[in-house]
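job 3f2a | input accepted
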Amino acid sequence: MKDTFPDPDQVAETHFIGPDTTRKIVEYFDFPFMLEKHGIVSAGHTHARKGNCFVRNDPLFSQILVCASGEGVILLNGRWHPCSPGTAYITPARARHAYFAAPGKHWEFSWIIYKDTGPENFAEGFSKGQPYEKQVEPELLSFPLQGLYEEATHWQDEIVMQSWIHLANTYVRRALVGDEIDPRLRRLWVQVEDELAHSWDCETMARIANVSEEHLRRLCLQAYSRSPMQRLKWMRIKYASELLLYSNLSIEKIAEEVGYNDAASLTRAFKKSRGLSPAKYRRNIRTQSFEKAAIAS
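job 3f2a | predicted structure (297 res):
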């Protein structure tokens, strides 16, 4: 490949999408929580054609790109290499990298750009000094990122968008640092989910996991990108959202079911996480569901 394409040492900084390339992209300046809560600058899915080319000499961000189909060209160790389905091209911050669509071939890939080295539990995967590749499932990121794009384009439901992001980040973590979840965490969170209404605290959770509170915090950040109490809150808000959509329980009863002292406590936590009250969320999401059902019929 080095004889077919330009000398890698001579290519200049380039950011060119190309006239025949299409992208589905979601960016943090439209949805600030992407950066604030997940460290994501932008994410998307690209159908690249001839002319699509990016060369970054000193990027301030880290990126993972996964080829879903077709073939592209990536820069590794000073040489051009093919990027075929299932290849993840991982580029740490400050590491020079380049990629482009191979002439005469289509190239479909998904990608996420993270600020600096991304979430704390990604640091190991983005800490290498040079770009590298790994073999993963070709559709690793395309499903969650296309789901994120559809939600961002049509409904802009933050809790749904965060679910897609959490799924994508889980897949990225598996690609970067492996898939093994500590069995102590599995045991803990199964019990928490079964007893969500319980008044949980870090001391109790650490005792169940049989680790110190600080070690539990590190394990949870590594596995879930959340502290234990953040994960507990996420689980409660997620379950509350499901009950608001699929049940007719009152806000007071839902608060009791998910572990809040009263409806006011749930409302404060829900609004902080979701941006609107449980009652308004229920009205909005049900209205959207009814409208979609009417269109489908």
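job 3f2a | Residues 149 and 288 are 17 Å apart (CA to CA).
job 3f2a | closed
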